[in-house]
Amino acid sequence: MTETTEELDPDLDPATFEARWIEQTAETRVLLQHGHTQPIRDLLNEIDENLQAFDDGGYAPDSDEMHGIYYDAITRAAIPYGQPPIAVDEVARQLRNAGINVPDIDLDTIGHRTGITPLRPDEVHRALDGEPSLPAGLEDMAKARQSIERAITSITVNGQSAQNHLATANTILTSAIEQLRPEQRGNMEQAHESVRRATANVDYMTETAQKLDVEVTLYTLPDCVGCNATKRALNKAGVEYEEINLQERPELVETFKQQGLAQAPIVETKDGQRWAGYNPGKLREHGLDHRTRQQREGGTNAHADRER
Known about the structure:
Blueprint: H1 2-8, H2 14-33, H3 38-55, H4 64-77, H5 88-97, H6 110-114, H7 121-129, H8 139-154, H9 159-179, H10 186-211, E1 216-220, H11 225-237, E2 241-245, H12 250-258, E3 266-269, E4 274-276, H13 280-285, H14 290-307
Parallel strand pairs: 1-2
Antiparallel strand pairs: 1-3, 3-4
Helix pairs in contact: 2-4, 3-4, 4-5, 4-11, 8-9, 9-10, 10-12, 11-14
């Protein structure tokens, strides 16, 4: 048991998992305060899918997914919404039975010990289940946000398309600011500035994506458990990837946040698909996991044998 713990350290350090709970609680609170509920829904769907697959026995005992599922369970516990497919304690029990000695995390006292106030179930349910509403006079913000999101998803596929979407957002916001009273302009002007920064970034990101002959671009942060788990999975599968440290590119963080990607790592495929966080299901979906690669290579070899 001791040897297993030392082998997996520092990924199984209790402080690492407590830091994940703190980070997710803070991120979710900020998103709720600003009315950005869709990224929270997307994250819940992804994590619940992973937890359900684990509970159904879909992960092999020695797979990389087994090492990341406790990280997912702690992340899910930070967002008190509905009933998760499997509780944190049960995830820990099953992992220990599989020889992965995960630490006990006392979620009942973590808020008191860390000084971070846990999210209340009622505030999360009210925000996610209620009808979204826009402040009077700011309807154009929604239209501009749509254009920004379209631009972000177009960046690695079509740089000109991204620029066109950003130009549309810029025009909408300029018109909206002119029509508002001075005391109403604060948020609009901030959004306008975000569009200008995004426009400055889009050329760089398009050029970078075209230059890199890799299957995946991985945007990471130091000491990030999800980043390490994703890199292990890609390395095991033999996937070529380019790693970019987001601490050195803060302007990209702002760009990703506009798309609702608020959790490291950000994984970007060659065809421009993106998602946030360690997500074995997404890796499988895009053929970036070890098992899919083995099956693909096995099928190719079998076909070559028949040809010979």
